[in-house]
Amino acid sequence: MHVLLTESSFGDSDFLLQPLRDTGCLVSRCHSRAGLCRALAVGGHCPLDEPFAQPDLVVDVRGQAAELTAREFGVVCAIRDHVPVALVSPDPDVRAGVPPGLENRVTVIDVDGLLATCRAASRHLGVAGVGG
Question: Beta-strand (E) ranges in 9-131?
């Protein structure tokens, strides 16, 4: 299973990178290490544009903010490409907020549920974890 990871604030998704890989997922990020959208970086490309390796799921790590931040525009790209989106809070005691207009287009899930889902999908697909 290929997961594309994005976040509302720089570094919020870092804690999920290795656990997702440990479930057997291939993990890509919307942004370079410098924080630039990978599609807008010189010589870059968006993982959503990969014809044979498009992500199966976009995971957005966000708090309860009402609006999407610029770092979360990958959510809009995913919805336009018909890729499912899961919202996860970086705080286990707080549910991720759903921005207006996305109420029926995304799934809010906690980290444990996300990892269990990814683990099951990876077992079902027989995919080995790879870094990205």
Answer: 26-29, 57-61, 85-88, 107-108
pLDDT digits 0-9 by tens, 46-94 = 999 988 889 999 999 999 998 999 999 999 999 999 999 999 999 989 9
CA pair distance 92, 104, nearest whole angstrom = 23
**Are 58 and 1 in contact, with CB atoms under 8 Å apart?**
no
- Angstrom distance (rounded) from CA 5 to CA 93: 21
Phi and psi torsions of 60, nearest 5°: -110, 120
In angstroms, how far is the first alpha carbon of the chain from the final one? Answer: 13
Domains and CATH numbers, the chain: 2-125 (3.40.50)
CA 39 to chain centre: 16
Cα diameter, the chain: 40
Question: What are the tokens at 1?
Answer: 């299973």
**Which letter does DSSP use for residue 101 in this model?**
T
Residues 6+ apart with CB under 8 A from 81: 48, 54
